């Protein structure tokens, strides 16, 4: 079977229609040829992948949402069945949950001050803290050895041994945290209405915006372009970048408070939930609502897996939809009820068919077949990396760190050429109306043509300035005569 090449192509091909220089046109055509060869090679490489993803299939009149976790655990192998477990921690809940980027480590944070870091696949507790104060959010940094905890007043950073490394005293009343791994930026927001960007590699504040719109309820990052999506009390979701003090876009998503926001890893779809008991899916390419679903209770937390599964924690019930982004799913894929508990946060584990649910009674790890990516890139995320590999990866990440100025809603604008000229008139005429004739003996190179075009533009600019000054003098004379 011939694999699909289209999903490996990176954007549209560059057009050489308006390129007159033969050398530049040949270079662009050669670059596009190499891009197609690489995409074709990656597509054929799919045949060599060791693992394949699969979903739960029902027979006859059966429905997948009626399958219980005990039935799924009994049908899978022993290694997968061990990934289904419950932690009963009724004294410190409700719990927040976060997974490391390679899916190996798990971070739990109880509202009443309990924080635990563990290797959940081997069920090994690495460290445990009892802070004796409120914990509002937890988040891994660029490595699992460092994590941030939003406590009652400030944000603290701890290592894998439980030692306090830093106290971010300027981060006050933080309720939401996101970490941008390719930019080394910790983004925080909370009750004071401020959104802050902090560079964790240098310790310097990149941006601090006072939004002046009250408490910020929820926050999520777009994995594709690192844009932050904020949910507000008036039902608006705004898009922010660290290089602009104003939101890039505003979207009226709900009639009331926005409870949760989630974006898939392609950056094309966004899911939102509000107090109006509506769950909506939006297309971020058109900023248009694709479909909506009525939930029995307001969804407190949303999550989207690597394979496009959508999960919503509705009070004491967890609902998961399959293929529910591009189009509306007819029925739920899986369901699970936590009797007597209230779901606080849900999150899918990367590269595993597992979803973590933090609730008022502790934490639960549930099996969701088909949720995670079956194959991982060892150069990017390696769950089995050794200590030396981890150190080398950390150094490589620092060397390849991206500037915050590169964060933009339109990712194609980074490699495009700005054709706007502030000195040119905004009259809608063709800016390249002067076309230099072709000259022989090497006098029509790109540099020669550019200098000739620039000389003509400079002369036109001087003529416009002289004309404007002449008109000003005539207007002054007419006004004096009128007086």
Shape: globular
List low-confidence stretches. Answer: 420-428
- Helix tally? 5
- In what order do the strands lie side by side in the largest sheet? 1-28-27-26
C-alpha Rg, in Å? 28 Å
Q: What structural class is derived from the secondary structure elements?
A: alpha+beta
Q: How much strand content do the residues show?
A: 25-35%
Mean pLDDT: 87
Total E-strand runs = 28
Describe this structure in words.
- By secondary structure, the chain is α+β, with helices and mostly antiparallel strands.
- The chain is built from 5 helices and 28 strands.
- The strands form 7 sheets. It has a 4-stranded antiparallel sheet. A 4-stranded antiparallel sheet has the order 2-3-4-5, with no helix packed on it. A 4-stranded antiparallel sheet has the order 6-7-8-9, with no helix packed on it.
- The longest helix has 37 residues, at 446-482.
- Residues 420-428 have low confidence and may be disordered.
